[in-house]
Amino acid sequence: MLEETTLFLNESATTSQPSIIHSDIARYTLITIYTVVFIGGTIGAIAMSFLLVKMNTLSVTTAAIVNLVVLHSLFLLTVPFRLYYYINQKWIFGFAFCKAVSAMMHIHMYLTLLFYIITLIIRWLIFFQWKDKVEFYRKLHAVAASATVWIVAIVFVLPVFIARYGKSGEYGNTTCFTFQQELKKPSVKALNYIIIAVVTAITCVFLGLQVFIFLKVVKKLPGSVWSHQEFWAQIKSLMFISVIIICFLPYHLFRIYYIQHIEEKQSATYNDICLSITAISCLDLLSFVISGNRFFKQKIIMLRDKLACC
Questions:
Q1: Tens digits of residue pLDDT in 195-232
Q2: G-protein coupled receptors family 1 profile domain spans which residues (predicted)?
């Protein structure tokens, strides 16, 4: 049985001795997803790194993207270990490292969401002309702000995750991502529900606001909107929200069902697959690079013209 947990979002089952992956279909699905994530995420991180050299280093948005590249890169370093386990169905890297790899999954998800929120808020401040630009006064300020986020995540949060992992049950040394007992605790259940509610609310509010802005831009622009830079800027903002909806929201919504059916092996498998889908957010950098390419824009315009003629 494939399961994943953290102090904040922990997997649970009632059995004290977890089985290894019980479904070949689920295993192959997970292997496929993580392989695509590793290849696409690595290409995207490298491509975006070259583009960042040309960007304004004082911009808060640039700082958020830089942190996103670092975050994805750190997470991608753990993906080969997951692939090894799913392929061989045996964990050989030690229990402590298993907990660290498991925790990184959730740290990656929520820090990615945080950087998305920061980027979208800045874009909206500029759009509504509340701010002409949002920048740090010095590069040192950008470094300090980024360091603060990483210190909280790596120095404080990660050690707590590792220290509290696997305290509610007995787990085998050759299995990983099978911490199942935490959701027996009422406090952990309550925390899960709170996080689900917060993520869902943020997604709905941000989607509604972005759709409003998008329609306002389309209505304001004369002629074909496809030729205007402002239209493409809103497309990029919509892409951030699309990643949240496609990658993060299904996992949180399914957890409502999973928390109430933690004894079912099938629900645990679906939960694992939903969790793996959150890793697809690593492909965002590649999509941003492609969408900002002039050739890509020209092809989109040509496709739109052909569809209009039909």
A1: 999 999 999 999 999 988 888 887 877 666 666 677 77
A2: 41-257
Q: Are 151 and 143 in contact (CB under 8 A)?
A: no
Helix boundaries (H) for the chain: 24-52, 60-88, 95-127, 139-150, 158-164, 186-220, 229-243, 249-260, 265-278, 284-291, 294-309
How far, CA to CA in Å, does 187 sit from each of 10, 49, 196, 305?
Answer: 12, 41, 14, 56
Amino acid 170: pLDDT: 59
Question: How many whole angstroms separate alpha carbon 254 and alpha carbon 262?
Answer: 12
Domains of the chain by start residue, with CATH: 24-297 (1.20.1070.10)
% of the chain with per-residue pLDDT over 90 = 32
Global confidence as pTM: 0.82
pLDDT in tens, 258-298: 888 877 778 878 888 999 999 999 999 988 888 766 655 55
CA dihedral (46, 47, 48, 50) positive or negative: positive
> DSSP state, 8?
S
What lies within 8 Å, CB to CB, of 166 at 6+ separation is 95, 99, 179
Identity of the residue numbered 248: F
